[in-house]
Design brief:
Blueprint: E1 2-7, H1 12-23, E2 28-34, H2 39-49, E3 53-56, H3 59-68, E4 77-80, H4 81-89, E5 96-99, H5 107-115, E6 119-122, H6 125-140, E7 145-148, H7 151-159, E8 170-177, H8 195-198, H9 208-216, H10 218-231, E9 238-242, E10 248-254, E11 259-263, H11 269-276, H12 291-294, H13 309-319, H14 323-339, H15 345-358, H16 366-390
Parallel strand pairs: 1-2, 1-5, 2-3, 3-4, 5-6, 6-7, 8-9
Antiparallel strand pairs: 8-10, 10-11
The chain binds NADPH dihydro-nicotinamide-adenine-dinucleotide phosphate and magnesium ion.
């Protein structure tokens, strides 16, 4: 029996994880739930899954939630803010933490859960992008364990049978990418991409931040970094292939020249359930793949001129230290500005590039990460006025 703390329970991954918990109550229970502001949804989840503690973004949300669950007999303790997330992650009795928070907010709970020797089921790739070497050291020193939830990394994990000792047999990882909604658009049209267009992902339904990351291919850049720290494979041995149908979720190439892939129609139900059930294969409410109907599967090289994000991620990995943290923070702020209609689509990657150009790389420590994250966000803000002048049509 796994007792779960689900962080980000109101989001795309969090709600799908709770569907799995509801499907297998004999194997999965809930100790804690945490979210940001969607308190109505959280109140429904509290009634159904009866956590002992819940955390929300701040005191206002906590007040709102309290009034929404005023009639419950044994209500959960309500906490808030970054400390609340850590308290929920490490609540006594918890065996596994599903970190499905979006962005940098996910890092401290990942570190806290590992330090408490818990199993972390990681959807929040930003944790590894910001602090991969710190997490690697915690794991090496025997603190907790990490199971990927991101579909590509779960695919790789599944191809090695969930046994990381088999990574020594691996010669190359090939991450697949749908290519996003602008795969076939001409580069000279990128300036006029609207928020609405960018939020329409062709194969996956996800939260807004990762949907924009998928459109810029920054998501795949983050995933190269994630794969590097998760599997200890050198960046030059991690390739990306564009595969528009999102049926092959990634490939593992072995030293003997053979290659394994994990396949299914695009759904997060499989990687989420694989992580939650510790690799046990049970029905997941997913239609089996009909390959005869698909007919063919297509793969191609990514276009690095149209999508500079992959090169930026490789550059950040080469720079080392705090550079990947800077890439992540600059991206988070740039995505926010794009979603607010303040910058155009190509500016997202230009802002990341500018942050990498100007950052003085520091060795990765927790303090250096906090400083680099803040520095990158400020750098983006300072540069936005310049970009707006550069693109007078940008609203
Ligand atoms: P969503 O935006 O759908 O959900 C994010 C969750 O985090 C929500 O529950 C939100 O709460 C909560 N949250 C955000 N900020 C805070 C905060 N400061 N404090 C507390 N809670 C917070 O994101 P996704 O589910 O799409 O993605 C989650 C993570 O999983 C990301 O790292 C993403 O890259 C990764 N991932 C997602 C995939 C997908 O299919 N969605 C696939 C692979 C990886 P609220 O909404 O209540 O404010
Ligand atoms: Mg992914």
């Amino acid at each position: 029996m796994r007792t779960l703390s689900i962080l980000g329970s109101t989001g795309s991954i969090g709600t799908q994880a709770l569907e799995c918990v509801a499907r297998y109550p004999d194997s999965l229970g809930i100790s804690a739930l945490a979210c940001g502001s969607r308190t109505v949804r959280l109140a429904e989840q509290i009634r159904k899954f009866k956590p002992q503690i819940v955390s929300v973004r701040g005191p206002e949300e906590a007040k709102r939630l309290k009034s929404l669950i005023g009639d419950i007999k044994n209500p959960p303790e309500i906490v808030h803010g970054p400390e609340g997330l850590i308290k929920a992650a490490t609540w006594p009795g918890t065996t596994s933490v599903l970190n499905a928070l979006v962005g940098a907010a996910g890092l401290s709970p990942t570190l806290a859960a590992l330090r408490a020797n818990l199993e972390v089921l990681l959807a929040n790739k930003e944790s590894l992008v910001m602090a991969g070497s710190i997490i690697q050291k915690l794991l090496k020193d025997g603190h907790g364990s990490l199971v990927p939830v991101d579909s590509e990394h779960s695919a790789i994990f599944q191809c090695i049978g969930g046994d990381i000792s088999r990574l020594k047999e691996v010669s190359r990882l090939i991450l697949t990418a749908s290519g996003g909604p602008f795969r076939e658009m001409e580069i000279n049209e990128f300036d006029s991409i609207t928020v609405k267009q960018a939020l329409l992902h062709p194969t996956w339904k996800m939260g807004p931040k990762i949907t924009i990351d998928s459109a810029t291919l920054v998501n795949k850049g983050l995933e190269i970094i994630e794969a590097h720290y998760l599997f200890g494979i050198a960046p030059e041995k991690i390739d990306v292939l564009i595969h528009p149908a999102s049926i092959v979720h990634s490939f593992v190439e072995f030293h003997d020249g053979s290659m394994l892939a994990q396949m299914s129609y695009p759904t997060m139900q499989i990687p989420i359930q694989y992580a939650l059930l510790g690799g046990e294969r049970r029905p997941a409410n997913v239609s089996p793949l009909d390959l005869a109907r698909e007919g063919r599967l297509e793969f191609s090289e990514p276009d690095s001129e149209k999508f500079p994000a992959l090169d930026l991620a490789r550059r950040a990995l080469k720079l080392g230290g705090t550079a990947t943290c800077v890439l992540n923070a600059a991206n988070e702020e740039a995505v926010r500005l794009f979603l607010e209609g303040k910058i155009n689509f190509p500016s997202i990657t230009s802002l990341i590039e500018s942050a990498l150009d100007h950052h003085d790389v520091m060795e990765t420590t927790e303090t250096a990460i906090i400083n680099a994250d803040l520095w990158a966000r400020n750098h983006v803000f300072k540069n936005v006025s310049e970009i707006l002048q550069f693109n007078p049509d940008t609203k």
